[in-house]
Design brief:
There is one protein chain. This protein is of the alpha/beta class and 170 residues long. α1 (11-26) runs parallel beside α6 (148-168). Strands 2-1-3-4-5 form a 5-stranded mixed beta sheet, sandwiched between helices. The protein has a single domain (11-168), classed as Maf protein. β4 (124-131) and β5 form a beta hairpin. The protein is built from 6 helices and 5 strands.
């Protein structure tokens, strides 16, 4: 179980993260994260599993458009469209993270966790999982106006599902 986040996370998410990280390490794989709306929560969850730190390569928290461009190499026109919340941006973030590290798998999340302004759907999150030698998988979820914390937790659940699928892909 995670040590630091365990009191704040649903038990099933904590167990899923532990299971995924242990399986990742058993297969001698590593993971990286590229996060926007989750603000580093995914990296924190994955690095909180005792005995599995060697399975985590690095995390990019790229909340701003500038960070997405500078740290992950996303083209400016891609980032500027729809406030950087799209399937293409999520895909670019995951693939950009893989391009900038030695990890085998990269997970990304971009979305509107809370109220974001006109033409921005609260609770809309795009997530992606890139694994070397495999097609990038993209997930789109409409969690609704359930609040920033709950949207982030729901996104983590989807990301854990994507990670587990990537670990087992061969």
């Amino acid at each position: 179980m995670s040590e630091t986040l365990e009191p704040a996370l649903p038990q099933e998410l904590d167990r899923q993260a532990e299971r995924a990280m242990r399986r990742l390490c058993d297969k001698q794989l590593t993971v990286a994260t590229a996060e926007s709306c989750t603000g580093g929560l995914l990296a924190s969850l994955l690095t909180d599993i005792e005995g599995c730190g060697h399975g985590f390569d690095r995390g990019f928290v790229t909340y701003s458009a500038k960070a997405k461009k500078e740290l992950l190499g996303l083209p400016e026109d891609l980032v500027e469209d729809n406030d950087a919340v799209s399937a293409k941006v999520a895909k670019g973030m995951a693939e950009g993270a893989l391009d900038r590290c030695d990890a085998d798998i990269a997970l990304s999340a971009t979305g509107f966790a809370g109220p974001a302004g006109p033409n921005c759907e609260e609770g809309l999150v795009f997530m992606a999982c890139a694994r070397r030698g495999h097609a990038t998988v993209i997930a789109e979820r409409h969690f609704g106006a359930i609040g920033r914390g709950p949207v982030r937790i729901e996104a983590l659940k989807v990301l854990m599902d994507l990670m587990e699928q990537a670990i087992e892909a061969d």
